Amino acid sequence: MTAYYLTTPIFYVNAQPHLGHAYSAVVADAVCRYQRLLGKDVRFQTGTDEHGDKIVQAAADAEVSVKEYVDKISAMFKAAWPVLSIVPDTFVRTTDPAHMGVVQGILQQVYDRGDIYFSEYTGLYCKGCEQFLTEKELKDGKCPDHLTEPERISEQNYFFRMSKYQEWLIDHITNHPEFITPERYRNEALSFLKEPLEDLCISRPTTRLTWGIPLPFDSRFVTYVWFDALINYLSGLGYPAGENFARYWPVAEHVIAKDILKPHAIYWPTMLKAMGLEPYKRLHVHGYWNMNETKMSKSLGNVVRPGELVTEFGADSVRYFLLREMSFGLDAGFSKEALMARHNSDLTNDLGNLFSRSLTMVKNFAASVVPQPGTPSAQDRELADAALAMLTQYREHLDHFAFHRALAAVWEVISRANKYIVSTQPWELAKDPQQATQLSTVLYTLLETLRLITLTLHPIMPETAAKMAEALGVTGENNLTDCGMWGRLMPGKAITPGAQLFPRLQQEAKDKPQPQKTKAMKEPSTEEAPAPEADGLVTFDAFQNLELRVAEIIAAEKIAKSDRLLKLTVKAPEERTIVAGIAQHYQPEELVGRQVIIVANLKPAKLMGVASHGMVLAAKDGDRLILSALSGPVAPGSRVA
Ligand code: MSP
Fold this sequence. Notes:
Elements: E1 3-7, E2 11-12, H1 19-37, E3 41-49, H2 53-62, H3 66-83, E4 90-93, H4 97-112, E5 116-126, E6 131-133, E7 151-160, H5 166-175, E8 180-181, H6 183-192, E9 200-201, E10 203-205, E11 214-215, E12 218-223, H7 225-230, H8 232-235, H9 243-248, E13 252-257, H10 261-275, E14 282-286, E15 289-291, E16 294-295, H11 306-313, H12 315-325, E17 332-333, H13 336-366, H14 378-399, H15 403-424, H16 426-429, H17 436-457, H18 462-472, H19 480-483, H20 540-544, E18 548-558, E19 566-571, E20 575-580, H21 588-591, E21 595-599, E22 605-607, E23 610-612, E24 615-616, E25 618-621, E26 624-627
Parallel strand pairs: 1-3, 1-13, 2-3, 3-4, 8-14, 13-14, 15-17
Antiparallel strand pairs: 5-6, 5-7, 7-9, 10-12, 11-12, 15-16, 18-19, 18-21, 19-20, 21-24, 22-23, 25-26
Helix pairs in contact: 2-3, 6-10, 11-12, 13-15, 13-17, 14-15, 14-17, 15-17, 17-18
This protein binds 5'-O-[(L-methionyl)-sulphamoyl]adenosine (MSP).
5'-O-[(L-methionyl)-sulphamoyl]adenosine binds at residues 9-12, 20-21, 23-24, 49, 229-230, 232, 256-257, 259-260, 288-289, 295-297.
């Protein structure tokens, strides 16, 4: 079995986990799950970075011992990941004796080879970065990440001969286009290397810092935190002995954000070279989650806690949002409104409705078993081809960490499948026994499309995909290579229409988009309302008081204990609930996606306990009731005049 090894950065324990940290871990978890779907033997590693000035400072601020402090925060990181369904195989702590031993072994080896020497250095040191910065890296004299002025420090220290490997590194990056991705970061690394590389100061005198790994060859010094931290990627594999190192190191890949590009693109490969090891295979660099244009970070005090979002939205919804909303490599802005919008629109409306409509139809029209399909029509084939093409695109994008593209491709098929339901009208086919085979083919096409969609969702939304797989009766059948073809669902097999995948979430009243205030929105008072003329005609004013709008039905469900009423969720353009007395004429699943005309300014009324905000227009023709419609698609909310 091919091996795959992916790591996140190990996070500093000077702060509790926030959404920025969580993003790196979600990315790594999703990719590891994806690689498992490809049948690989995957090892996923994360951990905590526990040495250095910053940690000592944070413990002092918290008025606890450093050990107590690091234990507590490290445990918080460990506990935060399962809440987001992030399941690492190894969790390295740099204060573990095993890790410390590996770091000392490497220091000794590099020292013995002559690549570590003793000297004096004066430079600009940023405490936040725990790095010396060059004048060029400063912005207005300040560290661009921490917005603080670095201190000028001069001291005797040990240095790693990084400069010796500069030419080798330039060649390596140039000859391996995928070594650092996306390309902008490869270019950034190459541009660092245009300047002569300075040697790297890898020690701190114990007079200044004791919370670190003692240098094995000089106990007056501890190891610089980056030299210590980067080695976690090896110590977690049991380096230098052990099978895991031999198996996984040759395929190692790292996920980081752009803040730590330099240590990973420059220090780390040259350190590996000095140890006589091959560099990692690929470095995947992402951008920042921002809050109002500023990086989310503890030091700026603008963080979002992933646990709180999970409580409100569910783990899968948060994972989906993170992966869908950010173009890997670029920055993205976080807002709860955007998360709410993705949740309600992409998950509840698009995916949730497709799933529940399709399964309900299989329940109602095919006795909850996979029907035997007939010869597919051009329309059936079109959806099947689109689903298969999507799978190819999805793999291509995930191989390159382009999650937003992969998900856009999946959602394109979801949207096609929803349209396919509207145009094939299975509920009409079900009325005519002559069309039974056609109905079976349509239902089969929908189930297979859903099965392929489910496959793609395992890495992104593991709980949802598991629910979908269970309903479709394909639990455990999730190898992308084996299952990524058309026609795997066996006719006759039972399916279980299940619970709703995603609850629709209500925005808090203050965040709700307010419908545009127009004259007609005013509830006409009895005094104001012009009375009908004696001839039965209404005045233009009376008509104008009625606000007719186009509404798109985005969800429909039966109302318990009523055989007449359906609860509709419509977009007009704001979301609202309308209770309509059409249950005897329409199935909920045939309504989603339709555009109808509504009276938008009707006084709200409660029907069977559900508040209705408006009325849907329909024509009565004898016993039949036909919903109003438009002859072409219209932006929801458009006025009908
Ligand atoms: N301990 C070092 C990494 C050592 S790796 C050998 C460190 N730790 S950190 O806690 O500061 O985490 C930095 C990483 O957290 C970033 O590289 C990124 O993966 C993640 N993020 C922290 N804030 C972030 C955002 N606002 N946005 C996106 N990712 C962010 O650096």
